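Model it.
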Amino acid sequence: MVLVQREEEFMQVRMTFDDCRGKRRGHAVLISGAVGSGKTSLLESLNEYFTEEGGRVLRAVGSQSERDIPLGVIGQLLHGASFPEKTRRLVEGLLPEHAPAAPAIRGQGAGPRPSLEGRHQAAVLHRLFTSLSELARSGPLVLALDDVQHADSASLHCLLYVIRRLRHAPMMVLMTEAPMLRLPHPHFRAELLSQPYFSRIALQPLTRDSLTRLVGRSLDPSVARKMAERARAITGGSPLLAQALVDDPLAQLTEPEYATPPGGGGPFDQAVLGCLYRHEPEVRQVAQALAVLGRKTSVDILDQVLDITHESAVRAVHILRISGLVEGNELRHPRITRSVLGDLSAESRRSLHSRAAEALHNHGAEPTVVADHLVAADWAEDAWAVPVLQEAAAHALSLGRPEFAGACLRQAWRAETDESQRADIKALLVKARWQVNPLSAEAHLPDLLDTIRQRGASVPGAVAAVPSLLWQGRSGEAGHLLAQFELDDERDTAAAAELRVMHMLVSLCRPESLTDAHSTSDAYGGPARNPVVSPHLEALTVLHKALFPTPDYDVVARAEQIIRRHNSEVGAPGLLAGPLLGMLYVGRSDRVAAWTDTLLHHSTVRHAPIWQAILEGIRAEALLRLGDLRGSEQHARSALESITPQAWGVAVAGPLGTLITCATEAGRHHEADTWLAYPTPASMFQTPLGLHYLVARGRYHLAAGRPHAARDDLQQCAELMEKWRLDLAGLVAWRLELAQVHLALDNRAEAARLLHEETSGERRVDDRTRGRALRLMSRTAVSDRKKRLLSEAVDVLQASGDKVELARALSDLGHALHRSGDSGRPHMLIRRAYQLALESGAESLADRLMRSGSAEGLVAQQEVPQGGHGLSEAELRVAALATLGDTNRQISNKLFITVSTVEQHLTRVYRKLGVKRRVDLPAELVAYAEETRDASSEAV
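Modeled.
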């Protein structure tokens, strides 16, 4: 038998045995260790050694179920011995069950059997020792007793009689014990510890090195060490649990997480339960309570949950800790927790959860912690339970956990409550359902509105109803509902702050009230005498300031400040939609793309499908404005998969508009037709998001050769924005889109008017809008001014990051230069435009560029043109090395020129090729780098 980290203990007992055999002097050894520490394995290995060395071993095992049987352990020892005839007769009658009864008296039963009490005690004990001494004549005798803590008192009395006489007897008494709640047989232990020929050995948990030997046989040492670390984290060094983990085929110790069979029952689960059932029932109950509590807890809470004494709880936790099941005051690992819970019946679990909820509530635990147990117990009978569930639900909603909030509210709904409580519960249920699936909330909204009409508006009811009403395009009803409340700065409460948020939300979603947003924003977000901080109000204010800009407010700086502050919070996605949209509408799509990428990786986003969908939709629009059509389409599709198009309500205009534009830009008009065929609510066109859809549809009509239909959509968009006094190109640049339609209709004067109006000094436009406008202006200008406008458009669009629009500007500039007689740069500009179109997924634009550029040599993308892109030989060498990623210093060393000369060459290269950065240099320049290297080698 292979023993790990028990070699020293084995040698210690072996030396004691050898001393017993050589000096004919006995000894008693007690091996102590937690359940699963390997005591029995060590004992069996020692017994095998004793037998091989000529010793005689008598074995016995203590058992909880037999501890009340007098002389039960002694009986095991003696019945396992093969005595000579003389000794056998001596043993006869030693044990009560074998002793002859006293003669029967007429009319009475048989007389009593002998026992260890009274006048029989000395005779029985003397006969026992004499019998054992007879066995020891031929060689050392070993009495091996496993789990001595469960032995009966009479047997221990006999063992002490033998141990006291070991000085001149070649006998060993070898015992093992495990800790218990109460010290078993204190008199036996006290006398045992005082004996001169007594040793005690304590078994310790396996170290990391020992675990490496156990779990890492036949493995690479580095892999074995990692496995040992993980095994220690799960088992605490318990040999029983560690070996079970190795034997469990579903325990992948080479990975951070460990698989568990759906129904449990694997070797590791069996080892955990085997360990528990070898303890006392009270210890097992503590483990079960810890599994139900599910987190680090205090012993005081355990006392109340199990109704046991504090001392018993402390001792039980200690026993579980040294057994490898507990670390601190909680079960060591989720696998252990699942094993323990799997052994509990459903009724037992509910009972423990209800007691845990009560104990935690009495100790002032957080409402969400208490509510978790109330839901698991399916219990809310006490008066305190429903308010706790309501508070926990509200908190869960603020953290983006609508599923848990719904579970709390359903539990509260089943309890006995008054009408006011039920109205508040109903309101929170609608709010929770909206975050999971707006369609579900829509089904329950009429009931909530009926309650509000019957009982009057309440703040919780309004806060729950308003977002659902706005989502359905019922902004008028939302405004009417809020009109029942008065915004009073004296009401500096959380409820007042929530009402301000709802008023701001209505002002942003209700077109007819947008014109009043300037005057009312101070009422919604202005300082109160003792203001209540409302992060949601701050976030919505950023969006409001983006739509109605003021010179003293930096939308991007404020938005990023809010995002950084709340980014790590669990409920961040719902809070940060406003700042993200604000940055999107002021032209910082690059920052929006970066932040949404971070937010979508929040684990909590998966718990709130509505916010995941909204973030996907915002990211899709940001990527569209950066010219990443493939990424944009992917995220827009994900937005419609997180919740169905029907569940999007009027907000479906966002992702649908993005998908229509992506399909149009890629030239896939049949896909655009499919997205346009999706049913949309009529009220969608009375919201700002409806403008996105109108512009997308107008673009599609123009691309499909229907300029008049495009004009109708864009003019409708213009009329709505004028009506709402919402004139922000970052929201919808309708003038640019309408100008393109007029250009298609050969109405250059009207197009020029619209473009001039868009770029006039009175209006603040972002780089993307300005670059697009400059490109379109070039189509209305004469030759010389055309080139200047396009050159400026290229510079501005490079800064904006929109690859598709940059490709258009480069293409237009290349063709303009070609028509003016430039023979060098046009080809390179058109090739660069073609590359950008391919990279961005603008397939339709790439096809047009290929067709229009074929006469100029726009072929075989990897072919290097002989003209060198219009660059001089020196510029080509520098550009080629820069394409490879060399720094200016490295280029100067390789070409034997100064760094200043490198910089001058690169400046001219960028100008000639129409690029601003090294990463934008054409990839085919690498071919010249090979020539440069060859030339350098020859020079050396």
